[in-house]
Backbone:
């Protein structure tokens, strides 16, 4: 079972707007976009630490 955790973040309105626009352009939710960005960062860091 893949349990999900809720996370609330505060961000500058400019960043919120940019993320919303980018997500809308590629047809995904802002939440999905943020998760995608976080996974890419974590995977990149995992490669560096090997």
Residues:
């Amino acid at each position: 079972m893949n349990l999900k955790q809720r996370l609330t973040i505060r961000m500058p309105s400019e960043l919120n707007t940019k993320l919303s626009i980018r997500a809308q352009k590629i047809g995904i939710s802002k939440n999905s976009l943020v998760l995608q960005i976080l996974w890419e960062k974590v995977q990149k860091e995992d490669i560096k630490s090997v």
Observations:
- Residues 13-48 form one domain.
- The mean pLDDT is 93.
- The two ends are 28 Å apart (CA to CA).
- The chain has one domain: 13-48.
